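Quick question: what would this complex look like in 3D?
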Amino acid sequence: GAVVSQHPSWVICKSGTSVKIECRSLDFQATTMFWYRQFPKQSLMLMATSNEGSKATYEQGVEKDKFLINHASLTLSTLTVTSAHPEDSSFYICSVGVGSTEAFFGQGTRLTVV
Amino acid sequence: AQRVTQPEKLLSVFKGAPVELKCNYSYSGSPELFWYVQYSRQRLQLLLRHISRESIKGFTADLNKGETSFHLKKPFAQEEDSAMYYCALRGYGGATNKLIFGTGTLLAVQP
């Protein structure tokens, strides 16, 4: 399977600042990565599909100007939360799909906006 | 619309008791169904998928298209089965393999 690593594992930032979260596929070249958001005791909500070399595809209701996604290489996708506010505090998880059968997940990033 | 429903937020059983975690789905075509598990302080990982028709850690799940269900079962629960379980769906034919998750069920196995 694929090994997926996220950095940082947790981050605290001030309201109004921007935060970048990295998702790396360590042993697999991923043309597609997925970004999820998980609220406490709730399900994972798909935010967007990150496509290498092209624009990300956002799910309905997700602000693309607030959650900037860049997938510049086959092993790295980044999610930037711009002008963060306390309501953006959440657990952000990325995943890589291998073939057509299985998804491998990063360990997640806990974002707290104060 | 694609949707996955897990009606139980919490399921508490005693060790050795049978377990059934319910999952129902809504999808217009032929979906792929999965069960993912998240143990305490670990990342989400695949438990099993319907196309494999396999038993993993004693768990099985059968896709019932008539009832649009994919319930997860284990005849004798173990304490180490305590975890968060997510049912997930993926549609065939899409350009991506994005997953739609249910809200999850926390399984607590008491000694």
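Answer marked as accepted. Chain A is about 0% helix and 55% strand.
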